[in-house]
Amino acid sequence: EEKHRSDALLYRMLPADIAADLREGHKVEPISYGEVTILFSDMVGFTNTSAKSTPEEVYVMLNEMYDKFDDVVDDFPDIYKLETIGDAYFLVCNLTTEVRRALCVCVLRDTTEPLDVKNAQGEPVQIRIGIHTGPVVGGVLGAKTPRFSIYGDTVNVASRMESHGLPGKIHISGASYARIVDKHKYRVRERGNIAVKGRGNMT
Asked: What is the pTM of this model?
């Protein structure tokens, strides 16, 4: 029973094939992924909200927000939740299951609607979402507490899409837009050239 719980936890923390290798004592080599779609989200004004709230109040707010995200993502097994750091939520598509569309865009198209989550001051929480598509390398860092993550410029650009986005909006790159199959189902508006930190102008 204890081993079953331990295995279940491991498979939640790591992709299934990597978890299986670790259980067998095999070394996990870096894996190249030709194309994944990455989603970052964060809470608008999180720093100011945290400064006005107790740690317990911040925890309750984030937990409620993450639960709402998880409820959406759980319906899509092709989406892999990498981690949550502070107010940031980090998802990747096309990592554990190959799909032919930018599924992250499809899954969270409704998350810009009011979350019905409020901070300790009674103010509604707003989020910002950024999405980008491209190649990455995935791997496990650390032996005692193995942690899987992905690396590469695609991750950086996805993060920039989020940080340069607008409250209550999903900011996607041209690469991600090209991967949306049913474009007529979405209302997408070009923002034109935007100066992106570390990247220059991007459309």
From this structure: 0.82
